[in-house]
Design a protein that fits this description.
alpha/beta; seven-stranded mixed β-sheet; six-stranded mixed β-sheet
């Protein structure tokens, strides 16, 4: 990016896990930041964080925090986004919001740049960053949908502790040695022990028997792909992994395809890396892929139970592609389109 494009950028929720990723990614991708405004709750006021070798003070997030800000990256929870994002827009900033607050609002674009960057053009100041498990899935679905038309999606997720925040990661790290020593552990952040365990509940249960996370995957996938009636069903499972979500995705296409056709199609997909060599036990795994940016796809095979079915395994770092990276990519796409 050129120097004259540099701008004042604010990060709301700068001291959280995603906030830390924002700082890393803005630096790594050389995003043009002229001046950085770090905002968090009063608990963090006065802390300093390092960005490109300079230390920056953390200020308290308030409605008057956004004077002169052109881009505000929000990662501070839905209630605080609802409270403060409109103030940022009123001050002239474009907000990319990481929470669920605005995702399903009609006039708010819900964007994964590899899929629907064109939706940014209609924005009214706020752009929503989708749910982490939805982002990685639609990146993998999109090339298949364009080439063969996706008619139904069945997904089971294996979601890392960090999806529930820094305290959740700490709970897993704290419980593991205690369980190995035969000590009792108490679940404070999660509904159950997470060390050496897993449970099929991410977020709260709804009246239809699905969890909120599962229904996010249904509604958000339809909105991002522009397919309001696409049949999607999800089972979301929390697993004792620190970072990076994994998904078993089963797709029904409009007509039968070969494995070779699917691999060729996915190979051309933006943001996708294929890791698929059964002879070498090569497939994506969360531990070695933590801290990386791509959406990794492996275990690609034609479904023997359905003539038009395809099965695949999808892994991505949900703090990066599932959150901070996708938000920064949205800002980059807006710059390219002259919207920032």
């Amino acid at each position: 990016a050129k120097e004259e494009d540099a701008m004042q950028v604010a990060i709301a929720g700068a001291t959280g896990a995603v906030g830390a990723e924002f700082l890393r990614i803005l630096s790594q991708r050389r995003f043009p930041v002229d001046d950085l405004v770090l905002l968090a709750s009063e608990r963090s006021e006065g802390k300093t964080l390092t960005f490109r070798g300079r230390s920056c003070p953390v200020r308290r997030l308030a409605k008057d925090s956004f004077a002169g800000v052109r881009l505000a990256l929000f990662s501070c929870g839905a209630a605080r986004s609802v409270e403060f994002a409109p103030a940022a827009v009123a001050a002239g900033a474009v907000v990319v919001d990481n929470s669920s607050a605005f995702r399903m609002e009609k006039e708010v674009p819900l964007v994964v740049p590899e899929v629907n960057a064109g939706a940014l053009r209609g924005h009214r100041g706020i752009i929503a960053n989708p749910n982490c498990s939805t982002i990685q899935m639609v990146v993998a679905l999109w090339p298949l949908h364009q080439a063969f038309r996706v008619e139904r999606v069945v997904v089971s997720t294996y979601q890392a502790a960090s999806g529930a925040g820094a305290r959740a990661m700490a709970e897993l790290e704290e419980q593991a040695p205690k369980v190995l020593r035969g000590e009792k552990v108490a679940a404070k952040v999660f509904p159950h022990q997470i060390a050496f365990n897993l449970f099929p509940q991410v977020d709260v249960f709804l009246d239809n028997g699905y969890t909120k996370e599962e229904m996010k995957m249904v509604h958000e996938t339809r909105k991002i792909m522009g397919e309001p009636d696409l049949p999607v069903t999800a089972t979301c499972v929390r697993v004792p992994v620190l970072r990076a979500h994994s998904e078993a995705v089963n797709v029904e296409l409009s007509h039968p395809v070969t494995r070779e056709e699917v691999v060729a199609c996915l190979s051309t997909g933006a943001g996708i890396e294929i890791m698929d060599d059964p002879k070498k036990s090569l497939y994506p795994m969360p531990f070695p892929l933590s801290g990386t940016d791509a959406v990794y796809v492996g275990r690609i095979r034609v479904d023997i139970s359905h003539p038009q079915g395809v099965a695949m395994w999808v892994v991505a770092d949900q703090l990066r592609k599932g959150a901070a990276l996708n938000a920064v990519q949205i800002a980059e796409a807006m710059q390219r389109q002259g919207l920032l």
